[in-house]
Design goal:
Oligomer: single chain
Order of helices and strands: HHEEEHEE
Number of domains: 1
Strand order of the largest sheet: 1-2-3-4-5
Number of strands: 5
Structural class: alpha+beta
Distance between the termini: 50 Å
Helix content: 25-40%
Largest sheet: 5 strands, antiparallel
Shape: elongated
Radius of gyration: 18 Å
Strand content: 25-35%
Length: 125
């Protein structure tokens, strides 16, 4: 009986370690030059969990989001005019999804993080 308990505990430990690495590896897979759409898919971000940055108003500049593991991320891309007739999130994503990112930043819950490419100008460290 003890052997079964130890094996179960060890397997649970291994699973939790592999899950943690998987979360970190997703962030490590992001590189400048990827499209906005690829980043959203790679990080498995739901549309409802992301915020599109307009800077100045009606000019799309980047996206921020919080991942399932509480990692905060920001991506930046070239300034792109918004459609002033429809500024919904869906229309914004349609407009920017093929843009290549030029910057990516992340901050994990434990404080670790980093920046790849250009630092998104709206990113607070």
């Amino acid at each position: 009986m003890k052997t079964t308990f130890y094996i179960s505990t060890f397997l649970i430990f291994l699973y939790s370690c592999s899950t943690s690495r998987k979360e970190t590896n997703r962030v490590n897979d992001i590189e400048p030059g990827m499209t906005v759409e690829n980043v959203i898919e790679t990080l498995n971000i739901e549309t409802s969990d992301l915020y599109i940055i307009q800077e100045p108003p009606l000019i799309y500049r980047g996206i921020t989001a919080t991942l399932d593991d509480s990692t905060e991320i920001a991506i930046s891309f070239e300034r792109t005019p918004a459609n002033h007739h429809d500024i919904s999130k869906e229309k914004a994503l349609e407009t920017i999804k093929k843009l290549k990112i030029d910057g990516f930043a992340w901050k994990e819950k434990n404080g670790n993080g980093g920046i790849k490419g250009n630092r998104p100008i709206f990113w607070v460290e």
